[in-house]
Amino acid sequence: MPRKAYKSVVIPEILYKKIIAHVEQSEGRYITISEVVREAVWNFLKAS
């Protein structure tokens, strides 16, 4: 059986609430919290 391609991470609740608000205000650009976090992490890694 192949290994799972995703890992779980824990974020502070305040950050979680801010991400939820961002998803709700994105007018359809983002549908899930995972999309926001994934894009933010990729942008961070590209910039460093």
Give me the secondary-structure topology.
Elements: H1 13-25, H2 33-47
State the secondary-structure class.
mainly alpha
Strand content: under 5%
Order of helical and strand elements: HH
Q: Which parts are unreliable, with pLDDT below 50 for 5 consecutive residues or more?
A: none
Form type: globular
Main sheet specs: none
DSSP helix fraction: 55-70%
Let me know the average pLDDT.
91
- Rg on CA atoms, Å: 13 Å
Describe the fold and architecture:
- The chain is mostly helical.
- The protein has one domain.
- It is 58% helix and 0% strand.
- The protein has helices spanning 13-25, 33-47.
- The mean pLDDT is 91.
Short recap of the structure:
The chain is an all-alpha fold and 48 residues long. It contains 2 helices and no strands.
